[in-house]
Amino acid sequence: MGEQELHQLIKGCLKQDRKCQKMLYKAFYGFSMAICLRYAGDRDEAAEVMNQGFLKVFTKIESYDPSRPFKAWLGRIMTNVSIDYYRANLKMAYAEDLEKAEHLHDASVATDNNLNYADLLAMVQKLPQGYRTVFNLFAIDGYSHEEIAEMLNINIGTSKSNLFKARQKLKQMILDADSSGNYANGVSFNPVVAMNGAPVSPVFYSNKGIRE
Predict the structure, then answer these.
(1) pLDDT digits over 165-209, tens only?
(2) Cα–Cα distance for residue pair 209/98, rounded to 1 Å
(3) Which residue among 6, 89, 93, 133 sits deepest, i.e. has the most Cβ atoms within 10 Å of its Cβ?
(4) Residue 4, number of CB atoms within 10 A of its CB
(5) What does the angle CA 110 – CA 111 – CA 112 come to, to the nearest 5 degrees?
């Protein structure tokens, strides 16, 4: 979609034009769904969160600054709505205190390159809500543990602990998939990247990329 067409749709949305809202929804459906899927347990849940996000977009469209990229603004809304959705029913399990969490370290994982986006997304969705949310916020969206603790109303040690355990569970799932050869079809993806934070072309939406 060109910039001129996008701005015309935004102008229409400012006037609560339903046709423009529908066109904007369709244009950014895939982009928004990709973000919500990372936080959701399944596609139905992601769709529910995404629709809440678009409702917020249409009711808060006047706050969008046309001098900034629309995708970045939309992406932040989808991320925030996802966080709000899970924060409402999030129960962090296996919390560690800060002192213990500071000494947790990941071990390297050696696997082949058969794992792809669909595989990794499915694995992330299988994580418990607490682990999944912290993993997305830290490893994908680039928030610090201090920021995550404030956003989710938890302590920093809990954030660090849940990130560590999320990675351990993902590593085990990757090893299990690698040994069984049970991969989905999709874009080629190296699983070591998601675990160790090496630079990679984005397979998830993020301004900052996957990191340690």
Answers:
(1) 999 998 888 888 777 665 454 433 333 333 433 333 333 434 444
(2) 26
(3) 133
(4) 8
(5) 135
